[in-house]
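To assess whether ligand presence alters the predicted conformation, the chain was also submitted together with flavin-adenine dinucleotide. Input:
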Amino acid sequence: MNGPLDWLGDLRPSLRASKEAWAAWRRLDADLETLAAADPGRGDQRARSSWLALIRRDLAAHVPPEGTGAALWQAGAQFISGYRDLDLREATGAGHGQMILDHAVPALADMWRARLAGGDLVGIAATEAHGGSRIQEITTRAAETTDGAWKITGEKCWVSRLEESSAFVVFVRDPAGQIAAVVVDADAPGLHRQVIDPAGLGGWTWGLVAFDNVTVDPEQHLLGGPGQGLAIFQSHFARFRPLVTACALGCAAGVLDQVRSMLVAKRATGILPRIRDNALIELGAAWADITASALLAFHGLAEAGAASDLAARLGKAHGVDAACRAVNRLAPLVGAAGFQRHHPIAKARFDLAALQYADGIHDSLYRSGGSELLRTVGSPAAAWGRAA
Ligand SMILES: Cc1cc2nc3c(=O)[nH]c(=O)nc-3n(C[C@H](O)[C@H](O)[C@H](O)COP(=O)(O)OP(=O)(O)OC[C@H]3O[C@@H](n4cnc5c(N)ncnc54)[C@H](O)[C@@H]3O)c2cc1C
């Protein structure tokens, strides 16, 4: 039987992962296989969300081995998790809590290091009704009180891990009007959550977070310095997006292997006398698409600890698009069976479609990548000179 380690094995010459990293990936895959036995299925969202939270706690010991590239190992872990189900994208790792580890004052960072290691989850609350692609225009506001505390007022929408998160990193306009990132406990007085039913990525709850004069202490809860919010957002997503991409491509690889096994079984049992060319072509094209996009997702993770922001943005848009394309082309080969609401392939299609919005909407990512490519081009005059 094929598995996610076979896919990573095909990338091995380009991955530069240590022996220890491969061994840790194999252990993670084996533990996920064992834990899958208790999966309550996709019909009951509450039961599924509790099971996913439990998995995260059970797998808390799965961290990058000493001396291995943490970002590369985590990307491999995301591929392995996504191969089984995109809902497992929080199975390991600090996730959005990484912003706290990187930018909080030492006492808060230490507290969250312990909580994340115990399986707690941190959400991100950035998007507002005017549009998530324009974070510069956020209106959620922190007003300063006479004792120096901040009172946060406003509303965030489309927030994932809504009810499972113990805290949110919230992007607000600080009293000076600059964008700041603050840590807000999920049970802080004045914080209200409203669940919305999503069409994809429904394993974790999703919806609105309203802030009605929620108090934070900037000395404790502000990440980075004043006005550092946008820089934190960008540096976090430069690291986070390759992980999202790896998870999405793992999901598409899992679908390809399901289709492959189904076709082989149908031929073995004589249901199909032969496999037609159209199926062979889809399988071959999807394998190439997934593998090429995975190379871009893993690109540079081993050396720098994180891909460049440009590779992270374009790699996410391209990789999730490739995963959607592969699954949309493979799904018809399964027939109507794959169209059942809780079938893993139907779920993968919805989940991947949702990922074209979550963590960066794709047209915006391509557009910002394109404009960066124009900004950073060498002197146009010199280029024309050379061409002439
Ligand atoms: C499943 C899921 C999970 C999510 N999880 C989170 C989360 O945990 N936390 C969080 O903060 N957010 C989350 N989001 C929100 C996500 O980050 C946003 O969907 C994304 O940033 C895009 O924002 P938007 O949907 O408001 O679209 P918009 O920003 O409104 O963009 C929609 C379209 O309008 C276009 N557009 C924008 N400006 C212009 C213009 N001037 N002219 C023409 N067209 C324009 C865009 O390019 C795009 O095509 C999630 C979304 C989904 C679907």
